[in-house]
Amino acid sequence: MRFTLKDYQSDAVGDTIRELASARDFYRSASRRVSSVALTATTGAGKTVMAAAVIEALFWGNDEFNVEPDPGAVVLWFSDDPSLNQQTRYRLEQASDRLRNRLVTVEHPFRYPKLQAGRVYFLNTSKLSKNSLLVRGHDDSNTLSGMESHPDTVPFTFWDTLRSTIEDEDLTLYMVLDEAHRGMGKRPSDTPTIVKRLINGHSGVPPVPIVWGVSATVQRFEEAMNAAEVQSNRVHLGTVQVDPVRIQESGLLKDDIVLDFPAETGDFNTVLLRRGVRKIRALSDAWASYADEQGDEPIKPLMVLQVPNKPSPAEVASAIDVIRDEWPELESDAIAHVFGEHTAQTFGPHSVPYVSPERVQDASYVRVLLAKDAISTGWDCPRAEVMVSFRPAKDETHITQLLGRMIRTPLARRIEGDDLLNSVECILPRFNKATASLVLEKIMGSDLMDSDGDTGQRILINPQLMTANAAIPDEVWELFSSLPAETLPRKHANPIKRVTSLAHALAADRLVPDAGKLAHERLHGVLNGLAAQYPQDMEKAVADVMTVAGGTVRGQARHGLRRDESWTEVADDRAIQDSYRAGARTITPDVARTYVEHLAADAEDEDAYRDANVRVAALAMLPQTRPALDSSADALAQEWLNKHRVAIKGLTESRQSLYAEITAMSTDPQLISMALPKNRQEETKRTVGETEHLLERRALHLLADEEGMFPVGKLNPDEIAVLDSETDRGNLLGWYRNPTGGRDSMSIAYQDRHGDWRTLRPDFLFFVDSEEGVRANIVDPHGHWLPDSIWKLHGMARYAEVYGDSFHRIESISRVDGELRVLDFTSAEVRSHVLEESDADFAYRRWSVAY
């Protein structure tokens, strides 16, 4: 893979690989049962990148997930849109070097009687329609009148190819249904759709063995499979559902979607277009400043101007005049279009060239892009950060679709503490408040947002930018950056991969020049120690590697006698290599390779390498080996992270983000320090009917407006009560409304009712002047009646046990019988009792005190 997978992507890939392996075993068993598996994730999660990693594992295996290759794997990638297939192929090529020469678009003439193992074939609905040469002559239901015979060039149809592939005992066909909700709608006649024929089989073509659905939501996949009527003959083994909260927390998607529209009726195209140009220019300056600060190449943000399907040339020409007037330094080739015409378009005196959607992201010279509706399914442009839509109010769906193409972050990570650079803005000149709410509803009801929970992604209307509050003492900011936060544990963490990744990073930053060598030497020492500690076990394991055992059954037909015999043979080089490869998967191929080189460093013949391979294979058989390696790798990683903590904080933000990801590669919560917030976008007004009201404000928030105030109108009454009570104590130096994502947010790991790790982000941090100096308080008003309450209380108790000394107070608050009650987690007794409870209401009633 050319991309490093995010943690949620890695988990989803591992789970999908295991589900597909079960599906293959299911099909290869005596029952020959066909099955389905699904991978679902919201827009922008990187489904194609995850699919590329899964396909790589099918073809070549995956050491991280301990998966062997399927030598007969064939992938048929199916969608109802040829342009979607083309874009998917382009993305797979981008994601994986190994797949680049193994991607085949099915076209007539297709001269292969069988699909070949280790290939991905792209097919769409129209290729199997009645007038397609690929299927001409297969049977009456596949052929239009007058086209009953095969084309002269190919004596078989693609359906014949598919049948031969499925019937081949050495091949396993995996059919990917891309956006699986497509192509399965009911038709007026009883003729099953093409997709149904593929899934269920027809006219002598067996059912596809394994259907792998890749979709945006679980519901869509389930509806698609129900429409295909597969319940009776196909078993659904499992759905790998990516948690939208984890997607948002990864920083891959922009945090804020900002909507701008006129506050009064009239024609505001020009006024709001100028506003959009000013915003994209301001973002260009902000990105340039950030790049200069970090020493990176600047992002060149893009503005999308969305026009109706039949735009008026005069109107577009006028818009281009406005853009160039407001942005005079714009280059001559900086405006392009992605219209369906695919040729340069003339608007008055302006000639606007065409650029293909998949090239827009890399064509950084394009700064203004003219588009119509959703451009095309599957296209993304992370550097598109402002959209001005000239679509009329009734086209809210088209606006929402295009907005969905713009939600990825340009650097595939969050810019910590900077809401401005983590947002996308949509300006709607032809909308008013009422119709703008339609866009809001479309976004909230679409897969851009998680309708079942709070992902942390916000939709803001005309927000104001809050910046660092000058009234906050420097000591507060210093304390903030030193507070302990926790990472979200990884489900499939690999300590050896973690320490080698850390070694590469430390070496690249010249903090530990020979880190890779030192890490491997440490692990080699562990392997040497195991061999010395368990000599008898090693001797037996070596003997097992050096011999091949088998059995023979003899029988006499005359007397009905049967005799079973066992035998052993000396393993040849090929058998030893097989054992070595199996062992290398256990201790990781990289460590196995360098350990062989270490053992045979002074050798003068090939026997030494053979003996080293035997030793690796034997060590891998010992049950103590992998736990010992993992323990040593974890210890070394922790040692390096602790030793170089201060130096890492002095690196650029991109490097700090990398170290944060490496730190999080663990099955347990890990300590990370918080990033300082730079700015935050907040709404300052609320609309009730036709009237706008200013939201309540409070002083001393770490980020504030020009008057030093922060809006609190979106806080609930209990949160307002807690905030005012903390202020009235008289020792408050500053407070912080904890955001729902990013390293500028206090994060505490906790386990939910299923044992899965989640992130708790307490509502408030309060900084107070105490006898010990400036101290921090965690205060979290959270309803005890909510289903996750007791699990979050457990997380707070565990966190306080570990990091309680870093805080003045750690408290959780809830209203019980009309009174605010507080659980004080600085008390060891309260922590102990809460951890024993299974009901939050009982915990508050028994162990809390009045707030």
Description of the structure:
The chain is α/β, with parallel strands linked by helices. It has 26 helices and 35 strands. It has a seven-stranded parallel sheet. A seven-stranded parallel sheet has the order 10-13-9-14-15-8-16, with helices on one face. Strand 11 (345-347) and strand 12 form a beta hairpin.
Q: Would you summarize the structure shown here?
A:
The protein is an alpha/beta fold. The two termini are 53 Å apart.
As a whole number of angstroms, the C-alpha radius of gyration is 31 Å
- Silhouette: globular
Give the percentage of residues in beta strands. Answer: 15-25%
Question: How would you sum up the major sheet?
Answer: 7 strands, parallel
Extended strand count: 35
Helix count equals: 26
Low-confidence stretches: 183-192
Class computed from helices, strands and strand pairing: alpha/beta
The strand line-up of the biggest sheet is: 3-4-2-5-6-1-7
Q: Taking all residues together, what is the mean pLDDT?
A: 88
First-last Cα distance: 53 Å
Helix content: 25-40%
